[in-house]
Specification:
mainly beta, 60% strand, globular
Length: 136
């Protein structure tokens, strides 16, 4: 299981974060990309699931506040393949995150925590993160 974590990567309103990675060639369960103020509060949880829990080939979005998960939102489609590079582009505005995948599909996920800056980034699971890029 690969893990990438940083506590000092400020993502501010008006900026866009691009995450490029490669799911493991033999990925069978899931991986996650998280953005928030710390590891207990996650403003955006992007969780592609190859086969995990009750979800198969589904992207699950959520927020965790005070250690408690909110209501899951399920994306449509599954733009991930084992061993194939992907890019997730996350545009951050005060009301929401606009998440765009490599295949052009887009989901609008609310900024449930309401902050204007998040500094915590964490990725784990069956994935290797190749690059992170923040643009104005």
């Amino acid at each position: 299981m690969a893990v990438l974590k940083t506590n000092n990567m400020p993502l501010k309103v008006g900026q866009t974060l691009s995450v490029t990675g490669i799911p493991d060639a033999d990925a069978t369960t899931r991986f996650a990309v998280n953005i928030g103020p710390d590891d207990k509060d996650i403003a955006l949880h992007v969780n592609p699931r190859f086969k995990a829990n009750v979800h198969e080939h589904t992207v699950v979005f959520n927020t965790r506040q005070g250690g408690t998960w909110g209501q899951e939102v399920l994306g449509e489609g599954f733009p991930f393949q084992q061993g194939v590079e992907f890019t997730i582009t996350i545009a951050f505005n005060p009301e929401e995150f606009v998440v765009t995948f490599s295949d052009g599909s887009v989901i609008h996920f609310p900024n449930r925590l309401g902050a204007k800056e998040y500094t915590y980034f964490f990725a784990d699971g069956e994935v290797r993160i190749v690059s992170l890029d923040i643009k104005q």
